[in-house]
Amino acid sequence: MDWKSALNGFKAYLRLEKSVSENTLEAYYHDVAMFQRFLEEKKYNLSPEKVELKNLQEFLVWIGESEIVARSQARLISGIRAFYKYLLMEDAIKQNPADLLELPKLPRKLPEVLSVEEIDMIIEQIDMSKPEGQRNKAMLEVLYCCGLRVSELVGLKISDVSFDEGYIRVIGKGNKQRIVPLGNGAAKFISIYMKGVRNHLSIKKGAEDILFLNRNGNKLSRVMVFLILQKLKEQAGLHKHISPHTFRHSFATHLVEGGADLRAVQEMLGHESITTTEIYTHLDREYLRDAILRFHPRK
Asked: Quick one: which of 81, 148, 178, 193 could link to 152 by a disulfide (CB 3.0–4.6 Å)?
């Protein structure tokens, strides 16, 4: 098996069987291609099935000596692991050389979180006299009240919204579906936007069922949501680094601070593993520590 056919097969496997996003697919392809280039630079005439653990470990030393940060190194290793897992599944190899490959230790980075007051400050900057203002209001209410990823927000369909039952169906990573409760406030602003703005747009073919549209009647881009949020943040006078994902982090943190069950938060966020959700318990402890340091008389 040569590298070209192995990489093409890996790509097809990721796209068709694993249903990964195009971004993840390209990242994994790039990771394995980088390892291939490393072997070529070292003049190692090795096909994919001839690679041994020592070659992979030498590659780790090589990327460790470069300026590639630990988080990117971990991503590279994940891509290579996925590649050799695929080759093992296809019976192209009998033993996986990447099984014992260790990920670099990564510091746990706590995400930026907004307080309820700061979220209110941002949403209050929306000019409701403009059609896009009514859309933005509904959009940010859904983003915060449902804890969506920005890709899930812009892909949300009218047919995914159940006003009677009070929930939305979300298509998350890997085409996995989850049901998330829809608050009364978010439902109200969606209804106002749909009746007052969306119904009067000339909707492009293919976007008929998409909930949030731009002024041309097309699906909003993720970049557009980011730019809308940045403008509102500046108008509110906030100096934190804020993105649509900040609303998702804030949603989860506020639930945990309010005493929500971690399993329920995991379900609402669509996390495959509970360990991913557990970062919000760390955020909660940081919040409590900060409160003690600020207010306790014996601090």
From this structure: 148
133-139 contact pairs (CB < 8 A, 24+): 134/189, 134/192, 134/193, 134/196, 134/197, 135/193, 135/197, 135/198, 135/212, 135/213, 136/228, 136/232, 137/189, 137/192, 137/193, 138/186, 138/189, 138/190, 138/192, 138/193, 138/212, 139/212, 139/225, 139/228
- Is residue 161 scored above 90 in pLDDT? yes
Confidence of residue 299 (pLDDT cuts 50, 70, 90): very low
The residue that leads in pLDDT, 290 or 91, is: 91
Query: Which domains are present in the chain?
Result: 3-89 (1.10.150.130), 116-295 (1.10.443.10)
262: which residues sit within 8 A by CB, 6+ positions away?
A: 256, 274, 277, 278, 280, 281
Q: Which is more confident, 212 or 286?
A: 212
Report pLDDT digits (tens) over 43-81.
998 999 999 999 998 988 888 777 676 677 778 888 899
Share of the chain above pLDDT 90, in %: 48
Q: In terms of pTM, does the model score above 0.85?
A: no
